[in-house]
């Protein structure tokens, strides 16, 4: 498992030397509202490099979630374009992993089988599911132990706490080794302590897989802790008003959270958040 | 007491005690107020009638049971298919749903004479009436089950590139199973009601037929015996579905 991941990463970075994995080309979004079109998102223009962890923060209702839906291709960008490896995204991408605030799991499957769900659907895994099942189980167990759920494989979702379900859903979003991980306020419903614990676990997972991660969050500390770059969005019609590169060494620890550097990033970002 | 309520036997012992108590009170009321048997027979009287007419009761119960089950299984097949149609297809939903609601509002007792004209006074009207009463709750529940799949789960599957068949197989079908079982329990009672209504209007056998015959002969204890058997059959069928449900959807909480 570890071997396959490192191989994949080296192939990926070799392929994508210098060129961005995702390009946002003047992306916009509008909705019909009371007879006219209302702009939600305006002119978002940015690039995301392979293996980068980026966050979008901003006041609620600024269309952060819409950005994820546009990247995933679930609802492609109506104005401008998002390009993945130079190709315009116009239908759902299949090599993405998604985790939402609500860690939806299938109640009739235990944790292990929930995590393995993508392998039954995504090619090439689904064609090999019969022969390589043992190997796939080890892949899932590997991820589960990264988030310390190795002893809960046989448990059903109703036997897990909210934090545990979210950890399992993170594993599910990564098991098929997606190139893009989309996180829509994944820890929004958790208490502060659990949330900080989750940051470290997500970081550990991501550092193993090294895919592009796009995090939508309200929590500025979360954004600073996890990201390579943070984008601040303005109130509607929203656009990127501030961008900051977080130069903190990885793996980041919760102790760093009280450092002056960390707080400096936090307060600078905070000063750029404007409310509706 | 707490411990007993949590035990498995409580589910059998408590209803049993309640039934026995009901019969005792009933018996006492009949004795104290000297109620004649053709108004309200005492449980002891009903028991005597049950023994005396055991062959007739058994034969007619069997008839009602199989017509009910036949109608019920038809209802499961048609109900599940219809439910999936209106659950998955907007066109089917818009077209069929108002028709189904309208049809469901029609009292089925009013249709039975028609069924008797079409099929004769035999088992078929009972099967058809049982079916007509039972398929609606099944169809509605299946559609509801499909409709309540979390949007996030749909997004997860869509983002994995799952086909319609895969989505149905991995999520839609298992998610709908608890709804199907919930509806089966209701539908089973409805099927009994349908079969008995039909038998009491147009039939040559069955518990409904027996009840009508017995009351016109002023054999009220026999009519009550048939009613009690009917109740018992309903409980048994209900229990059967709960048993199956626990085996199939053990994960549902």
Secondary-structure map with pairings?
The complex is a heterodimer of chains A (276) and B (253).
Chain A: H1 2-15, E1 22-33, E2 36-48, E3 53-57, H2 64-72, E4 79-84, E5 87-88, E6 96-100, H3 111-115, H4 125-128, H5 133-146, H6 162-174, E7 180-184, H7 192-209, E8 212-217, H8 220-226, E9 229-233, E10 240-245, H9 260-271
Parallel strand pairs in A: 3-8, 3-9, 6-7, 7-8
Antiparallel strand pairs in A: 1-2, 1-4, 4-5, 9-10
Helix pairs in contact in A: 6-7, 8-9
Chain B: H1 2-6, H2 10-32, H3 43-52, H4 54-88, H5 90-105, H6 112-119, H7 123-147, H8 151-159, H9 164-201, H10 207-216, H11 220-248
Give structural attributes.
heterodimer, A: 276 residues, alpha/beta, Rossmann fold, four-stranded antiparallel β-sheet, 24% strand, B: 253 residues, 2 domains
Walkthrough of the structure:
The complex is a heterodimer of chains A (276) and B (253). Chain A has a 6-stranded mixed β-sheet, sandwiched between helices. Chain A starts with a helix and ends in a 5-residue tail after the last helix. Chain A has one domain (51-74, 91-271): Rossmann fold (3-Layer(aba) Sandwich), CATH 3.40.50. Chain A has helices spanning 2-15, 64-72, 111-115, 125-128, 133-146, 162-174, 192-209, 220-226, 260-271; strands at 22-33, 36-48, 53-57, 79-84, 87-88, 96-100, 180-184, 212-217, 229-233, 240-245. By secondary structure, chain A is an alpha/beta fold. In chain A, strand 7, helix 7 and strand 8 form a beta-alpha-beta unit. Chain B is flat. The two termini of chain B are 25 Å apart. The model of chain B has no long low-confidence stretch (mean pLDDT 91). The A-B interface holds A 72-74, 92-94, 96-98, 100, 102, 104, 106-109, 117-118, 120-122, 156, 158, 172-173, 176, 182 and B 150, 152-153, 155-162, 166, 170-171, 174-175, 249, 251-253.
């Amino acid at each position: 498992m570890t071997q396959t991941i490192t191989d994949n990463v080296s192939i990926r970075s070799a392929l994508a030397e210098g060129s961005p994995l995702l390009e946002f080309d003047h992306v916009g979004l509008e909705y019909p509202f009371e007879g006219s079109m209302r702009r939600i998102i305006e002119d978002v223009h940015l690039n995301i490099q392979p293996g980068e962890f980026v966050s979008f923060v901003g006041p609620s209702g600024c269309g952060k979630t819409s950005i994820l839906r546009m990247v995933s291709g679930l609802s492609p960008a109506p104005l401008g374009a998002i390009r993945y490896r130079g190709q315009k995204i116009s239908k759902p991408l299949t090599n993405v992993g998604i985790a939402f605030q609500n860690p939806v799991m299938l109640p009739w499957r235990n944790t292990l089988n929930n995590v393995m769900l993508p392998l039954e659907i995504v090619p090439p895994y689904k064609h090999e599911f019969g022969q390589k099942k043992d190997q796939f189980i080890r892949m899932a167990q590997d991820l589960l132990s990264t988030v310390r759920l190795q002893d809960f494989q046989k448990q059903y979702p109703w036997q897990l706490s909210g934090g545990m379900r979210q950890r399992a859903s993170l594993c599910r979003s990564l098991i098929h080794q997606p190139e893009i991980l989309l996180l829509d306020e994944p820890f929004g419903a958790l208490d502060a302590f659990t949330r900080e614990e989750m940051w470290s676990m997500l970081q550990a997972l991501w550092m193993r897989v090294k895919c592009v991660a796009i995090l939508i969050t309200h929590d500025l500390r979360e954004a600073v802790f996890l990201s390579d770059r943070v984008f601040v969005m303005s109130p509607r019609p929203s656009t990127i008003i501030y961008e900051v590169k977080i130069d903190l060494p990885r793996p980041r620890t919760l102790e760093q959270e009280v450092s002056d550097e960390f707080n400096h990033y936090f307060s600078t970002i905070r000063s750029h958040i404007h409310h509706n | 007491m707490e411990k007993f309520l949590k035990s498995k036997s409580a589910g059998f012992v408590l209803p049993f005690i309640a039934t026995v108590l009901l019969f005792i009170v009933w018996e006492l009321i009949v004795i104290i107020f000297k109620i004649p048997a053709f108004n309200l027979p005492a449980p002891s009287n009903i028991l005597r009638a049950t023994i005396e007419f055991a062959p007739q009761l058994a034969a007619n119960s069997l008839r009602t049971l199989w017509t009910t089950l036949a109608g019920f299984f038809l209802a499961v097949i048609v109900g599940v298919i219809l439910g999936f149609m209106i659950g998955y297809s907007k066109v089917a939903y818009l077209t069929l749903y108002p028709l189904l609601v309208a049809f469901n509002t029609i009292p089925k007792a009013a249709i039975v004479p028609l069924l008797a004209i079409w099929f004769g006074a035999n088992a078929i009207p009972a099967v058809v009436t049982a079916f007509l009463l039972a398929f609606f709750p099944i169809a509605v529940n299946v559609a509801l089950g499909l409709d309540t799949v979390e949007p996030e789960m749909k997004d997860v599957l869509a983002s994995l590139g799952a086909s319609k068949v895969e989505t149905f197989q991995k999520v839609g079908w298992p998610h709908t199973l608890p709804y199907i079982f919930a509806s089966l329990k209701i539908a089973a009672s409805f099927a009994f009601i349908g079969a008995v209504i039909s038998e009491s209007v147009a039939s040559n056998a069955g518990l409904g037929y027996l009840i009508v015959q017995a009351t016109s002969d002023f054999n009220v204890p026999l009519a009550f015996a048939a009613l009690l058997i009917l109740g018992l059959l309903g409980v048994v069928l209900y229990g059967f579905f709960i048993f199956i449900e626990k085996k199939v959807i053990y994960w549902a909480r």
